[in-house]
Write a structure and sequence with these properties.
Layout: H1 31-46, H2 50-61, H3 65-80, H4 82-90, H5 102-117, H6 122-136, H7 139-152, H8 157-164, H9 172-180, H10 184-193, H11 199-209, E1 215-219, H12 226-231, E2 235-236, E3 243-246, H13 255-258, E4 262-264, H14 267-278, E5 287-290, H15 297-308, E6 312-317, H16 320-330, E7 337-341, E8 354-360, H17 375-378, H18 381-401, E9 402-412, H19 421-431, E10 434-437, E11 455-456, H20 459-462, E12 468-474
Pfam family, one: NusB
Function: May act as RNA methyltransferase.
Domain SAM-dependent MTase RsmB/NOP-type: 190-475
Length: 475
């Protein structure tokens, strides 16, 4: 399955009609669907991010909780399955998708998601999509949308999969890519990274990518307590001693979050930082480094833990706006810490200056597809090849920065082997002064961590983002 097409903008016939200035009395769609349409338009037409643009739309339009939940499910689901829906829509129009006006195609994607993947009856999905197109684009485009949506609604998603996807027996990657809305190259990468590589585990992983991610919170050590989050309606996290899960609601309404005593942070992200802090260390334990610290969640955990041990944290980020986010996350920590804007590949500190080093390396983000629904269609295999040299250079810099006997945690939010274990393998082989440390003992109580020594979290197994952790000791 190829990435979604970017339609041409020079269309005027039915199905390619610009928004017209027809009388305002024509039927309009309900506010939830209009909000979803505008969010999808911003993502596809302006390269916006759904997790940023949609909350602003929901707040500015004052949708009630039920409508906001519907708009969120519709927006995120449509973006996740865009590639699949484009194939289905393409089978039901008489022209290439690139010849459809972009707003029309986005409206059809929204309609396809409602009829194929939500609890919206086909006739309702047709009528509401037609109303949306009529109100937002024009009458001619509405007639076109009506015809297309009626044909799309004649089958359910399983039936369209049987008709349009490769057979599972002949091409399991292509079949699962279509059925679960992932580009085939990502499906192959996940299959390669999954222990055992079974098709059932692969399908479970893909399905988990399409489920909403839980809102995970982390208290800042020394500034907040998990009990305060529980009293506000959260539940203790399963494994992180500083974590909690908020079943519903806006985390910004929790006093501890507003005051900076806690923040939103995936439990897997918490666990990899805690593993670095909990691993035993011979010799001094006074200087800690977070090399790519923005936006600051892991730095806030490490700063609090460092304060408890009379250690100091240096948090570094190359980008000034991300460094400001780190400063905000560390505000209120009573210990010694510094936030520095610098290129961590050539940091302005002496070699062997730190006892513990965290490198949360820039990566493809394939481990957080639940949270960034459009990312799977924007990323390309070439991105992996471009990121790997930077990841390798940063890890070498981390090794130079840590003292002999000190620890480095190499972390990514991706399971892609070209960004995880093979990067570590290459650096160890060329360094000659590193040893892998089994990270599993420092993730107490967490099940299904594999054979070690590295750890790969999985959404379908652990309910976290697909974080990767390798612990290394410099000899």
């Amino acid at each position: 399955m190829t990435p979604p097409e970017k339609p041409s903008r020079r269309r005027h016939q039915s199905g390619g009609q610009r928004r017209s200035r027809e009388p305002a009395s024509r039927p309009t769609a309900d506010p939830a669907r209009v909000a979803a349409f505008d969010a999808v338009r911003a993502v596809s037409g302006e390269d916006a991010y759904a997790n940023l643009v949609l909350p602003e739309l929901l707040q500015s339009r004052r949708l009630n909780a039920r409508d906001a939940a519907f708009a969120t499910e519709l927006t995120y689901g449509t973006l996740r399955f865009t590639g699949t829906y484009d194939v289905i829509i393409g089978a039901n129009v008489d022209r290439p998708l690139g010849e459809l006006d972009p707003p029309v195609l986005d409206a059809l994607r929204l309609g396809a998601h409602q009829t194929l993947s939500m609890r919206v009856p086909p006739h309702a999905a047709v009528s509401t999509t037609v109303d949306l197109v009529r109100g937002q684009i024009g009458e001619g485009a509405a007639r076109f949308a009506n015809a297309v949506m009626r044909r799309v609604g004649e089958r359910d998603l399983d039936a369209w999969t049987a008709e349009l996807a490769p057979s599972r027996e002949k091409d399991v990657v292509g079949h699962l890519a279509f059925r679960h809305g992932h580009p085939p190259w990502i499906v192959r990468a996940l299959r390669d990274a999954l222990p055992g590589g079974g098709d059932d585990a692969l399908e479970a992983c893909l399905a988990a990518d399409n489920e909403p991610a839980p809102v995970a919170l982390a208290v800042r050590p020394g500034r907040g307590e998990v009990e305060e989050l529980v009293e506000a309606g959260a539940q203790p996290a399963r494994w992180s001693r500083y974590g909690a899960i908020l079943p519903s609601g806006d985390p910004g309404r929790i006093a501890a979050v507003r005051a900076g005593r806690a923040g939103v942070q995936d439990e897997g992200s918490q666990l990899v930082a805690l593993a670095l802090a909990d691993a035993p260390l011979d010799g001094p334990d006074e200087r800690w480094l977070d090399m790519c610290a923005g936006p600051g969640g892991k730095a806030a955990l490490l700063a609090g833990l460092a304060t408890e041990r009379d250690a100091r944290l240096l948090a570094v980020d190359q980008h000034e706006h991300r460094a400001r986010l780190v400063e905000q996350a560390l505000r209120g920590d009573s210990g010694e810490h510094e936030v520095l804007v610098a290129d961590a590949t050539d940091g302005p500190w002496p070699e062997a200056d730190f006892d513990r080093v965290l490198l949360d390396a820039p990566c493809s983000g394939l481990g957080a597809l639940r949270r960034r629904p459009e990312a799977r269609w924007r990323r390309q295999p070439s991105d992996i090849a471009e990121l790997r040299p930077l990841q390798t250079e940063l890890l070498r810099a981390a090794v130079r920065s840590v003292r002999p006997g000190g620890l480095v945690a190499y972390v990514t939010c991706t399971p892609h082997l070209a960004e995880t274990a093979t990067v570590v393998d290459d650096v160890i082989r060329k360094s000659g002064e590193l040893e892998r440390i089994d990270a599993r003992p420092y993730l107490s109580g967490v099940p299904d961590l594999g054979d070690g020594p590295d750890v790969q979290f999985w959404p379908h197994v652990h309910g976290t983002d697909a974080m990767y952790l390798a612990l290394l000791r410099r000899r």
